Amino acid sequence: xxxxxxxxxxxxxxxxxxxxxxxxxxxxxxxxxxxxxxxxxxxxxxxxxxxxxxxxxxxxxxxxxxxxxxxxxxxxxxxxxxxxxxxxxxxxxxxxxxxxxxxxxxxxxxxxxxxxxxxxxxxxxxxxxxxxxxxxxxxxxxxxxxxxxxxxxxxxxxxxxxxxxxxxxxxxxxxxxxxxxxxxxxxxxxxxxxxxxxxxxxxxxxxxxxxxxxxxxxxxxxxxxxxxxxxxxxxxxxxxxxxxxxxxxxxxxxxxxxxxxxxxxxxxxxxxxxxxxxxxxxxxxxxxxx
Length: 290
Ligand code: GLU
What we know:
This protein is of the alpha/beta class and 290 residues long. The chain has a single domain (3-65, 96-288), classed as Carbamate kinase, CATH 3.40.1160. Helix content is 43%, strand content 16%. It has an eight-stranded mixed sheet, with helices on both faces. The longest helix has 25 residues, at 86-110. The chain is globular. Residues 222-230 have low confidence and may be disordered. The chain binds glutamic acid (GLU).
């Protein structure tokens, strides 16, 4: 794509009205201790409140429930392994989600912003009545000027009904609420042609117009491509859900959370995936088969 068209696509982000922002646990924690990074949380909340002040509808999809709960409970790292009984994770999530929300509520209140919590499982999308109700709830919260804070309902989600990762969840939420833009804040700058830590020739991709099979495959660890590390696979699945729902998506580095307003100012930050207008995409069917 030529530079002037790229510029136009970036400029178009200024007019986005309904925005979903996703942040992952690793972006919210101090790497040394695993405790919450309050400075980052504060900047994140300030940026979101400022989006509201610009007249945008805002949804935050945030991870961190399990990480925060794990710190609050006497659960050792040995006890909490990837294959630990799901009940341990669920207990961590039950404690952590409440703590996480308490922290968010406090900071949002400092900026006079009302925040709400919405916890979802696959059933929220697959079941027609649940989906209809969730859609209505979001609509009413937008009307009332509330920022919705979304997470997976990890306390009750077992294998059959879990989304499993918040990248996909955020794109599903964006599709459900008919957002214009999804921003994934992550620990990577965006999409490269290969792992930049291992391949000096790796090139940064600033705009993706077409999510080709070749690109989708780049995220899969099984292909041997290192782009898969750092969760590029789930981010590309999110890109598929978002762009097929005609929603633009940006992956940007959460190192500096102030990129949020710069993205909305049309600056060339991260990788922009362009939404597609006329593609058949059945959200409930997709979620059911995930
Ligand atoms: N829902 C999980 C949590 O809040 C995180 C899932 C993810 O980060 O993808 O701990």
